[in-house]
Each structure stands twice: as C-alpha cells, then as structure tokens.
Design goal:
two-stranded parallel sheet, about 90 residues, alpha+beta, flat, 2 strands
C-alpha cells in the first residue's frame, strides 16, 4: 500500500467543486487524527456553493467515535434541513 501512495500523484479538485449543485455536508474530526485540516475545510467552504460544515471535537478520522449518536444526529439534522427546504 505504501508503494502505491508513493507513486500516486495528488490531484487538486477544489476548483471543480463549484460544479456540485446539491447541498453537501462536511463532517470533520477535531483531534490530530482528523485527516481533514482546517485549510482543506476552508477550501471546501470556499468552493462548494451549498455546504454545511460540522466538527466533532472529540473525534479523529473515525467520526463515529466516541459518539456514534452525535455523528448520526448531525447527519439527521442535515437531512431534515434538506427535507424542510424542498
């Protein structure tokens, strides 16, 4: 797996995000284990026309830990927002 990562090239797609014309929910972890940095989060917010960002302060990469209930609650709130707006 490491060999594939070393040989792969990063592709920045931020400039194409404005083509996404549906609401997007971005959930990021708040610990050092989070794979989504503040800079990347800001790029998403700047380039997605309709984005909601939420941070789970006690989560890292595994957003459902330590509180699966809070993770599911964020998703449900987003879906209710979508339902209410239609």
């Amino acid at each position: 797996m490491e060999g594939i990562q070393q040989e792969s090239k990063g592709i920045e797609l931020y400039r194409d995000l404005n083509r996404i014309q549906v609401p997007v929910l971005v959930i990021k972890g708040g610990t050092q284990e989070s794979l989504l940095s503040e800079v990347e989060t800001e790029k998403l917010k700047s380039n997605l026309p309709d984005v909601v960002t939420k941070e789970l302060n006690e989560s890292g990469h595994e957003l459902w830990e330590p509180s699966k209930e809070r993770f599911i609650q964020l998703i449900n709130e987003f879906l209710v927002r979508l339902d209410d707006s239609s």
